[in-house]
Amino acid sequence: MKPGRGGSLLEDASEIARLLQAHEAGDATAFDRMVPLVYDELRRLARRHLRRLPGGHTLNTTGLVHEAYLKLARSPGLRLNDQGHLMAVTACAMRQVLVGRARARLRVKRGSGEANVELDESRVPTEGGDAEALLDLDRALARLREHDARLASIFECRYFGGLSEEETAEALGLSLRTAQRGWMRARAWLRADLEGGPGADTLG
Question: Model-level pTM?
């Protein structure tokens, strides 16, 4: 996969929409032809994710984009509603790539006995933070998804994908107000879960 040059922004948007429709209709080549048109956006997502990767990693922005692309390309049931949905799905794939790498790091150096840390944008996981913090958050996010998949998706788009409130609402087909409320509720639930507090069992 290599970045490509499209025409004007309007032409690119029109082509992306056409390729999304072709992908949904079963065109196996549409996804490959669409990725170069959104390559810059994918790199933006990748940079956001890499800031949360533990220090000492060798994965760069291009590498993460390519690994996420391969993960999506190998998903036979992949469904994409629109460009916003593509960004949300890619954000999820990138998170899975990083979580996989964090697990690999911990298999090498295990048993640190570090305590979980609370959900705070300045601490969990910090830029260049530790692998355990990333895995703690991933496990908490999986528990949240069992309670409310929509809240988990909102958090994933905002925190890992770096999408704005408006972009998150568009990607998930929600109203702006619903996305805003969901972001606040998801953070509160995850904070309670990570701290082991009583609020972790309900969404209130």
Answer: 0.63
Q: Quick: pLDDT tens for 151-177.
A: 999 998 888 777 888 988 988 889 999
Q: Compute CA 12 distance to the chain's CA centroid, rounded to the nearest angstrom.
A: 23
Question: Where in the chain are the domains?
Answer: 9-110+120-201
CA separation, residue 156 to residues 22, 88, 89, 135, 183 (Å): 27, 8, 10, 14, 10
Alpha-carbon 148 to chain mean position: 17
What angle in degrees, to the nearest 10, is found between the helix axes of 83-108 and 61-73? 110
189 pLDDT more than 90: yes
Spatial neighbors of 80 by CB under 8 A, at least 6 apart, are 20, 23, 24, 31, 86, 89
